[in-house]
Write a structure and sequence with these properties.
Helix content: 25-40%
Shape: globular
Number of strands: 20
Radius of gyration: 28 Å
Structural class: alpha+beta
Number of helices: 18
Distance between the termini: 22 Å
């Protein structure tokens, strides 16, 4: 078995399906390392609000990374490329009009490297129209293929020519497919098809749009697919389905969706899959500060951990935004802080004392699993005073299962709904609330081995690059815990799950764009 899998066929199947639809069958495939060179974005109308650009026949590092990644993920048990080609050939064979066609002879000679689809006509719920473009490497071979499916296909209707593109219409759904020198172009209808051809022929295209180019510059290198979204354009198309008060609220928080764009990139590496996101909607989208110091201090046996920096500042900004827009008619604009103040709540004083917040879950099995929520404050006095205030409140309330910790260092609550006591305590400038006395005291002590010394955690931080780590999941303990479930479906998935190393989440900035990154890594 050839384990060097051509995963390019996975995306090619979607792109080639547009072409093969005219022959009354579905499927697609790939296997070439070249392309026409024309960017599919050049065949998308300039006012496109969502554009998906994918590599259907990857080459170079991208191809090598895909082959390595799937080989590792499946333990060399799957040859996806050959399987998809087999499905394409089977689809051809099942229709009398295409039974003489094969992928190798009739598709591979012309199938290009990239494909793109432009979505339009958003009504607040769905997209009504699309224009798709598939790169062609050999227009002569593509023309031969197109002639065959037009001649023999059962679902081919009206044919014609427009601006250098010969086209045919599907009698099933009215879609129009045409072939030019660089692309197969498919449109929802004749108007959408012509819009794509006009763009590809030199009229205004998405590729020539500054808004698009400024955004796509933030797409990741060597990505398998990129998704561009004109968020402001979608809002305008949605019309009155969008609540203006919601937009005003987010704008008060420093998030302006009305003029924003975003791009998401799927990046396969040789031993991980990475999803990158960037938007100019506002820096607060991905967070502020650096939570890596807090998350690195969690116990080394942590299974999952998440942290956010500058939470007090973010909360103050959020409340300021709410105060500005209000909650009409109950709380008019500008009245929130006054209302809270009259109740004895000083928002600014409270939020100024809150720093970072983190959460971790740790343990080696169901018998000792636990974790804690940690809040950093501006001082040790703030942390101790806050916990002792809560302790006095709980005492006065006469809470069931409540008891004060030794030395007045906090309290615990025993509840039948919890496997262990809920413990609230403090250590230095940190407030801790944990499930289980031992786990919480371990987190409070600041001693012992921590994630900072874990090689898996170090690998996760390194993989994130400049992004500040805000989330981490160690896959090995999760697999061990899954084995205890005695679930038959887990046994089926276990060979693949055992290949996972970690999940890492991080965020940062790139110029005016807020960025975030999610990585799922395999064992090396």
């Amino acid at each position: 078995m050839n384990t060097r899998i051509r995963l390019s066929a996975v995306l090619s199947s979607a792109a080639a399906a547009a072409v093969l639809a005219f022959a009354g069958c579905g499927g697609g495939g790939g296997g070439s390392d070249s392309g026409s060179g024309a960017d599919p974005a050049s065949a998308a109308p300039a006012d496109t609000t969502v554009f998906i650009d994918g590599s259907v026949r990857p080459s170079g590092d991208l191809k090598s990374n895909l082959q390595d990644l799937v080989d590792k993920a499946t333990n060399g048990q799957v040859d996806a490329g050959q399987e998809i080609i087999k499905q394409i050939d089977n689809a051809f064979a099942q229709d009398s009009s295409t039974q003489d066609l094969t992928y190798e002879d009739d598709v591979a000679p012309w199938l290009g490297e990239k494909a793109g689809i432009a979505l339009s006509g958003y009504d607040g719920t769905d997209f009504k129209d699309y224009t798709a473009a598939l790169q062609v490497t050999d227009s002569g071979a593509a023309s031969d293929f197109f002639d065959k499916i037009k001649k023999e296909g059962e679902h081919v209707g009206k044919e014609g020519s427009y601006n250098g593109y010969d086209y045919a219409t599907s009698t099933e759904d009215g879609t129009v497919l045409g072939l030019g020198d660089d692309f197969f172009i498919l449109g929802t209808n004749l108007a959408d098809f012509k819009a794509g051809v006009d763009a590809a022929s030199g009229s205004d295209s998405l590729e020539s749009s500054k808004t698009y180019s400024d955004t796509i510059d933030h797409a990741s290198d060597n990505s398998m697919a990129d998704v561009y979204v004109d968020i402001g354009g979608l809002i305008k198309q949605s019309g009155q389905t969008v609540d203006q008060q919601v937009l005003d609220f987010y704008k008060a928080l420093g998030v302006n969706f009305s003029d924003a764009t975003a791009v998401a990139s799927l990046v396969p590496n040789s031993d991980s899959v990475e999803l990158d996101f960037a938007t100019n909607a506002g820096s607060s989208i991905s967070g502020t500060g650096d939570p890596s110091e807090l998350i690195s201090s969690f116990p080394s046996d942590t299974i999952a951990a998440f942290a956010s920096a500058g939470v007090g500042e973010q909360l103050q900004q959020a409340l300021t935004g709410i105060n500005k827009v209000g909650f009409p008619p109950e709380v008019p604009p500008g009245a929130l802080f006054q209302t809270l103040s009259s109740a004895g709540i000083n928002v600014k004083q409270i939020t100024s004392k809150i720093g970072d917040i983190g959460l971790f879950v740790n343990g080696s099995g169901l018998s000792d699993i636990g974790g804690a929520l940690i809040v950093t404050t501006d001082s040790a006095k703030t942390a101790s005073d806050t916990v002792r205030s809560f302790t006095r409140f709980m005492q006065r309330a006469g809470a069931t299962g409540f008891s004060v910790l030794k030395g007045g260092q906090g309290f615990s609550v025993v509840n039948s709904g919890l496997p262990r006591p809920l413990v609230v305590t403090f250590k230095g400038d940190k407030i801790l609330a944990g499930l289980g006395l031992a786990q919480t005291l371990k987190a409070a002590s600041g001693g012992g081995s921590t994630l900072a010394g874990s090689q898996t955690f170090k690998d996760a931080q390194s993989a994130l690059g400049d992004a500040k780590i805000s989330g981490f999941v160690d896959a090995s303990p999760l697999v061990a815990l899954g084995q205890l479930s005695n679930d038959p479906s887990f046994e089926t998935a276990r060979p693949y799950l055992e290949n996972l190393a970690y999940l890492a989440v991080g965020y940062g900035t790139d110029g005016d764009f807020a960025t975030s990154k999610v990585i799922v890594a395999l064992d090396k």
